Recover the amino acids of this structure.
C-alpha cells in the first residue's frame, strides 16, 4: 500500500483554499501524513494546534527569483521526509497553500500506476517512476505546472533544484521553467550543449521550426511519454484565480498553427496526455 504524503510549501496567499484543503486531506483515509513547510510569519492559525499536521517553520530569507522561494522550502520538506520516514513505498504530492485539489482529482492521482519498466531505457534512469502533473506546455520543454506534482520519493528527490553544482554557472542553468526537470532533460540530451538552454527560452512563443528545434520537440515528447501523466479533471484543481480548466487553448493540432502566434494570445498549454500528443510535428 502506498504511503501518500502531502507536502505543502509556500506562503498563505489564499487562506480559504488552504483551510478547505486541510479539511479534505484530514477526511481521507489514504493520506499517511500532511507536512507544511512555510515561513515563520505565515498565517497558519487554522492548523496551529492540530498535531496531525507536521509543521516546519522556516526563518525568512531573501531570494532574487520567486521560484527560488518554492524550491528552498521544497528542499527543506524533502529533508524532513528523508529524516523521518523510512518506508520505501512513499509517494509525495507537492502542493501549495493557495492550491485546492478536489476529492475526485486526488482519487485519480493516487490510483494511477507510476512504476516505469526500466528495461525500456538504454541507460539507468534517475526517474524510475512517472510524475503526475496538472498541465504542460506543448512547445516549451518542461514548462510544466510546478505548483503541484506527485511521484515516488526516489523521483521527487531528483526534482530538487540544488543537486550538486547544477546552478552555480548562471549561463548553464537553463531557462527558468526547466529547473525542476534539468536532470531529466539531460537524460534525453534535450539540448546537445549545456550552454544552449537559454537559446531556446522563447519556444513558448513564436519560433522557427527547423531541424534543431524539431529535434528538441521530438525528444521532449518522448520524455513526456515515458515519464509523465498529464491530467486535470473537470473542477479538479483550484489555484487562486487560475481556476478555469483550459483557460488557454491551442488553435489546432498543427504545429505550424501553434508556433505562429505569440504567447500572450496562445500559451499552448494542455491538460491531458491525449491533447499533448494530438499535435502533429
Amino acid at each position: 500500500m502506498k504511503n501518500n504524503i502531502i507536502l505543502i510549501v509556500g506562503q498563505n496567499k489564499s487562506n480559504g483554499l488552504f483551510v478547505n484543503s486541510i479539511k479534505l486531506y484530514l477526511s481521507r483515509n489514504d493520506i499517511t501524513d500532511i507536512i507544511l513547510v512555510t515561513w515563520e510569519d505565515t498565517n497558519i492559525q487554522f492548523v496551529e494546534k492540530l498535531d496531525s499536521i507536521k509543521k516546519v517553520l522556516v526563518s525568512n530569507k531573501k531570494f532574487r527569483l520567486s521560484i527560488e522561494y518554492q524550491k528552498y522550502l521544497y528542499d527543506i520538506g524533502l529533508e524532513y521526509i528523508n529524516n523521518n520516514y523510512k518506508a520505501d513505498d512513499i509517494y509525495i504530492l507537492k502542493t501549495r497553500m493557495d492550491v485546492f485539489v478536489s476529492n475526485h482529482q486526488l482519487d485519480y492521482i493516487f490510483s494511477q500506476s507510476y512504476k516505469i519498466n526500466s528495461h525500456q531505457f538504454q541507460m539507468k534512469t534517475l526517474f524510475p517512476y512517472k510524475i503526475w502533473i496538472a498541465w504542460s506546455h506543448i512547445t516549451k520543454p518542461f514548462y510544466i505546472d510546478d505548483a503541484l506534482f506527485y511521484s515516488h520519493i526516489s523521483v521527487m528527490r531528483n526534482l530538487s533544484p540544488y543537486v550538486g553544482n547544477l546552478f552555480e554557472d548562471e549561463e548553464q542553468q537553463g531557462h527558468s521553467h526547466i529547473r525542476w526537470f534539468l536532470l531529466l532533460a539531460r537524460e534525453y540530451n534535450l539540448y546537445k550543449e549545456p550552454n544552449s538552454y537559454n537559446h531556446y527560452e522563447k519556444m513558448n512563443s513564436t519560433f522557427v521550426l527547423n531541424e534543431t528545434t524539431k529535434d528538441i520537440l521530438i525528444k521532449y515528447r518522448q520524455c513526456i511519454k515515458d515519464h509523465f501523466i498529464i491530467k486535470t479533471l473537470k473542477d479538479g484543481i483550484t489555484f487562486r484565480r487560475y481556476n478555469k480548466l483550459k483557460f488557454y487553448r491551442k488553435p489546432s493540432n498543427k504545429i505550424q498553427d501553434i508556433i505562429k502566434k505569440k504567447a500572450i494570445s496562445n500559451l499552448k498549454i494542455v491538460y491531458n496526455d491525449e491533447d499533448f500528443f494530438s499535435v502533429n510535428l
Notes: The chain has one domain: 3-278. The first strand starts at residue 3 and ends at 9. Residues 3-278 form a domain with the Spore Coat Polysaccharide Biosynthesis Protein SpsA; Chain A fold (CATH 3.90.550).
